[in-house]
Automatic annotation (TrEMBL):
UniProt KW keywords: Angiogenesis, Coiled coil, Disulfide bond, Glycoprotein, Secreted, Signal
Keyword Secreted included in the entry's annotation: yes
Residue ranges the record marks as coiled coil: 193-259
Region (Disordered): 22-43
PANTHER family cross-referenced by the UniProt entry: ANGIOPOIETIN-4, FIBRINOGEN/TENASCIN/ANGIOPOEITIN
Location of the protein in the cell: Secreted
InterPro entries per the UniProt record, alphabetical: ANG-1/2/4, Fibrinogen-like_C, Fibrinogen_a/b/g_C_1, Fibrinogen_a/b/g_C_dom, Fibrinogen_C-term_domain, Fibrinogen_CS
Signal peptide: 1-18
GO annotation, biological process: angiogenesis
Protein name: Fibrinogen C-terminal domain-containing protein
Amino acid sequence: MRKILLGWGLMLTAGVMGASVVGASGGGGRGQRRRGEKRRGLHRVQHGHCSYTFILPEMERCQASPVQYGSTNMVQRDKPPPAESDWSAQKLQHLETAMENNTQWLQKLEKYIQENIKMEMVHIQDHPVHNQTATMLEIGTNLLTQTAEQTHKLNVVEAKVMNQTSRIEIKLLENSLSTNKLEKELLVQTSKITKLQDKNSHLENKVQVLESQQRDELEDMREEKNRLQGLVRTQTTAIEALERQLRVASTNNSALQRQHQQLMESVHTLINMVSTGTGILLRDQRFCDCAEAYKAGHNISGVYYIYISNMTEPTQVFCDMETSGGGWTLVQRRVNGSVDFQRTWKEYKMGFGDPAGEHWLGNELAFQMTSQTQYALRVELRDWEGNTPYSHYDKFQLASEKQQYRLFLWGYSGTAGEQSSLVSHGTSFSTRDADNDNCLCKCALMLTGGWWFDACGLSNLNGIYYTVGHNIRKLNGIKWHHFRGPSYSLSSTAMMIRPSDF
Ligand SMILES: [Ca+2]
């Protein structure tokens, strides 16, 4: 900006601004009146980049005071004072003159300004400062543009950052919620764990109490065990003593048995001697059973040879020629327990024992005999009190080995019970090695011997032989239920057959 001071009190200030009159007023320190100075007016004109300030002298306000030549109060008066109209005319003329002077002066000024402006413009256009200013302006503009772009980019980045921040905040919020949930869950779990720990400690206490009790009981049991072991040692000693005594007794018993055997042999010898003159053991006469021998005139009981079925070799059998008309072939006999009846299937099939004493004729021979013709069965019994009842069956038949020597009986009668102690129809024969009974158990092992057990039935004449005094309460003895009940063991038995039509 430049200031041009004119000789007659005009100061011109030029700047690089648009050309326009900004305003005209008295102001600033320069335009302020000082005491003793003439009044001056300060006027500024803006043209483009330049501004011009003019300081113009103001007219003296005549000598009249505002009171003398008019105010709003004067106008409102009803009647002007008488000398005032002349004064006003003078004043008006004076003002017109002043205005004319001013107008002339202003025209001069305008002309001057226009010339000066032209010169200034030429001067400004030629001056390199203008170019520099333009360049600076251009650079400024570019800087502004770049700044605007950078600002825009920054805004975009800021928006992104804001978005990202928002997302992170949301996630943080979510995480915070999850954390809260987890914390709650953790509290619940902690509470549960505490409860469980309480329970656990309670149980541990119980276990400790139980362990203590068990220790005590174990101690008691140890003492009891020691006591029992002492007892067992005592008993073992006693048993050993008893065994020694038993061995002595057995030795004595063996001696008695030998004597008994000798006696039996003597008896057999005597029987044979007696039978020599009565036809017993006649091998040259072929009887098919004792009934034939009886019919042939042999009426003495004893051992006879008979030829069963188509057998070429004779079989020794005992014939009872006295009981109920005689002619009976013995199938079984127990008298003294001298023969062991705990035998196998094969032994019961083929027969065992001594026909003159205790024996089992054999299932196969009985089957062959009862296949020839119809036989009756008689069961002779004796208890230890001397009672001798019998059971009679009109018809007796055995099936083959393939059918387990099944038993078939018809027409029971007799004195050994009102009912039969043998199951009548189709009971299979069983031994300890052939379980054909109708029990889930093995009757032959429980009751001993071989028999038509059913399950396990009311009779067993092949059980263990118990001597007198030992014969009661014996389920595995020689029993016939409808005679002496289920646990009485009899002293002697005999099963015998002869043809039904004898
Ligand atoms: Ca069975």
